[in-house]
């Protein structure tokens, strides 16, 4: 398929008209429409209902004019059919009934069969793609480390005590867990691509908890395997994490098409760290969105100027849209980003 999307072109570092933009967590509680739906349904009810999922995934494209949609789902969703009993608690996050801490716990996880286990997700993807027309849909999944951190800790964590303990004290169990989760990530994303997703993002949100030597030893092998398999699908692959200043080079070595950068690392510094062969995505501080427009403009302009003329750049936030963000700021930001050319005028 020949794509004319500026988002896809920028993923491949090819010329395009304007700087593409989308926002992590662009569907969510900052939107009136989302809040209204959430009064009627739980998060999981919404994510498992193809019509609601389609509506919530498409609205940001229609309301904000972003260049890509992201599937409304969660990194935890594939873990349900793999045998993990969890809930999503409001204002908190995922809570796992029986955390995975031993080789025996691990044996209870079963292989994900995406289309059999989660048919509603793939029905939603087909509906979203039909409604979006030329705007691409980004599929996503959690990365093995970040999924493992929820499974092992039993929920959100600050210090990743149990995760690091298992990783260091039971390296063989850790390796098996990484393999099981990497396999699920690849299966889930491959199925999303089969049903129409035109790019995939792997969220390793909490990978910044690791120093680079541990990343290389305990995580990198599984990430290399993930991207080797995903890249064979011939859609752009995006790898995102937070707190990654010292990890960016190693993350790049795992082979994604695009590297997501959080707001703590200046984007020009990220570029000089990783070289020119990978597209960068980022990295406005999400907290600017709760401020007056001038603040959003000032911070976004600095990023856009740093990346001016770089065809391998996608504008995004450094992490997800906060629930307190002003929707107007997001709308104006899309218009502002679109005033910047995607490649130098001379090309
Ligand atoms: O645009 C979108 O909203 C896309 C949908 C999306 C995505 C990409 C959701 C909906 N979750 C995710 C991925 C996700 N889930 C990540 C990676 C991205 C990131 O770092 O933000 C992570 C870490 C989770 C786990 C999770 N699920 C959390 C974070 C908890 C923690 O450890 O701090 C939370 C709060 C959830 C629930 C959730 N997922 C999504 C939404 C809109 C919500 C809130 C549910 C609600 O409405 O109450």
TrEMBL record:
Substrate binds at residues 25-29, 74, 150, 205, 319. CDD domains: URO-D (cd00717). It is an enzyme of class 4 (lyase). The record marks 74 as: Transition state stabilizer. InterPro entries: UROD/MetE-like_sf (IPR038071), Uroporphyrinogen_deCO2ase_HemE (IPR006361), Uroporphyrinogen_deCOase (IPR000257). Pfam families: URO-D. Its EC number is 4.1.1.37. It comes from the Bacteria. It catalyses: uroporphyrinogen III + 4 H(+) = coproporphyrinogen III + 4 CO2. Residues 20-29, 138-154 form the Uroporphyrinogen decarboxylase (URO-D) domain. Pathway: Porphyrin-containing compound metabolism; protoporphyrin-IX biosynthesis; coproporphyrinogen-III from 5-aminolevulinate: step 4/4. Coiled coil: none annotated. It is found in: Cytoplasm. NCBIfam families: hemE (TIGR01464). Catalyzes the decarboxylation of four acetate groups of uroporphyrinogen-III to yield coproporphyrinogen-III. Homodimer. This is Uroporphyrinogen decarboxylase. It comes from Sulfobacillus thermotolerans. The lineage of its organism: Bacteria, Bacillati, Bacillota, Clostridia, Eubacteriales. The gene is hemE.
């Amino acid at each position: 398929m020949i794509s004319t999307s500026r988002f896809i072109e920028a993923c491949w570092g090819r010329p395009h008209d304007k700087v593409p933009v989308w926002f992590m967590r662009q569907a969510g509680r900052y939107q009136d429409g989302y809040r209204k739906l959430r009064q009627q349904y739980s998060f999981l009810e919404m994510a498992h209902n193809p019509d609601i999922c389609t509506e919530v995934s498409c609205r940001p494209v229609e309301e904000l004019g972003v260049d890509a949609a992201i599937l409304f789902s969660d990194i935890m969703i594939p873990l349900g059919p793999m045998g993990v009993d969890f809930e999503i608690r409001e204002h908190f996050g995922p809570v796992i009934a029986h955390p995975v801490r031993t080789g025996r716990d691990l044996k209870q996880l079963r292989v994900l069969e995406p289309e059999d286990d989660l048919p509603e997700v793939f029905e939603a993807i087909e509906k979203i793609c039909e409604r979006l027309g030329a705007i691409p849909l980004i599929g996503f999944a959690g990365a093995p480390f970040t999924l493992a951190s929820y499974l092992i800790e039993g929920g959100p964590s600050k210090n990743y005590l149990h995760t690091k303990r298992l990783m260091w004290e039971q390296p063989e169990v850790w390796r098996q867990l990484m393999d099981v989760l990497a396999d699920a990530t690849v299966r889930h994303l491959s199925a999303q691509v089969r049903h129409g997703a035109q790019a995939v993002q792997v969220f390793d949100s909490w990978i910044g908890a690791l120093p680079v030597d541990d990343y290389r030893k305990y995580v990198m092998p599984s990430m290399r395997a993930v991207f080797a398999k995903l890249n064979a699908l011939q859609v752009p692959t995006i790898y995102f994490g937070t707190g990654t200043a010292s990890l960016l080079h190693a993350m790049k070595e795992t082979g994604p098409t695009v590297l997501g950068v959080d707001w703590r690392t200046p984007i020009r510094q990220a570029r000089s760290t990783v070289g020119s062969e990978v597209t960068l995505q980022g990295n406005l501080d999400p907290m600017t969105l709760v401020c007056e427009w001038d603040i959003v403009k000032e911070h976004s302009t600095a990023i856009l100027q740093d990346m001016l003329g770089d065809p391998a750049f996608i504008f995004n936030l450094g992490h997800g849209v906060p629930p307190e963000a002003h929707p107007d700021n997001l709308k104006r930001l899309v218009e502002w980003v679109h005033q910047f050319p995607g490649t130098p005028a001379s090309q």
